Amino acid sequence: MKKSKDGFTTIEMLIVLIISSFFMSLCIFLYQGIHINDQELEKEFWVNFREYWKQAIENSEYTGWKTYIYKKNHDIIFSNKWHHNKLRMPDSMHSQDNLLIIVNNDGYVPPQTYEWYSKNTHTRYLLKVQLGGGIYKIYEKYYE
């Protein structure tokens, strides 16, 4: 007498269920590790901005060329005659439309205030260049 097997046994179904639930939990765990919130992206942006700023000051002092810092699309461009760096702003942030910072050939930056806004964290960032020596501070103000 032949026994016909038309479906899966309970053991086979349990094995498939265990394997698929293992892979699903692994994917959820990895996704949570990759997902970064807006505050962390903005913090990382300002850390990178600080490094690019220092490099722009040093390049201007060393080469004797002006460095221009401006906004193009959603990038902040640090540019002089030979060096061009691009820093991507987080999608939640935007800067004032007429952003243009000029680092003179001696590293001097005229005192001025520049504004950035974050729509997701409701933060207004004020970048204040002080004393004209390329030193700046960032102030955060929260709005509703």
What do these coordinates show?
The mean pLDDT is 84. This protein has 144 residues and is an alpha+beta fold. Helix content is 35%, strand content 32%. The strands form 2 sheets. A 4-stranded antiparallel beta sheet has the order 3-2-1-5, covered by helices on one side. 13% of the residues are buried. It is elongated. A hairpin with a 2-residue loop joins strand 1 and strand 2.
Q: What is the radius of gyration?
A: 26 Å
Quickly give the structural class: alpha+beta
**Global outline:** elongated
Low-confidence stretches: none
Q: How far do the termini sit from each other?
A: 78 Å
Strand portion: 25-35%
Structure characteristics:
144 residues; alpha+beta; 4-stranded antiparallel sheet; 35% helix
What is the topology?
Blueprint: H1 10-34, H2 38-63, E1 67-72, E2 75-79, E3 84-88, E4 93-95, E5 100-103, E6 112-118, E7 123-130, E8 135-142
Antiparallel strand pairs: 1-2, 1-5, 2-3, 4-6, 6-7, 7-8
Overview in brief:
The protein has 144 residues and is of the alpha+beta class. The chain is built from two helices and eight strands. 35% of the residues lie in helices and 32% in strands.
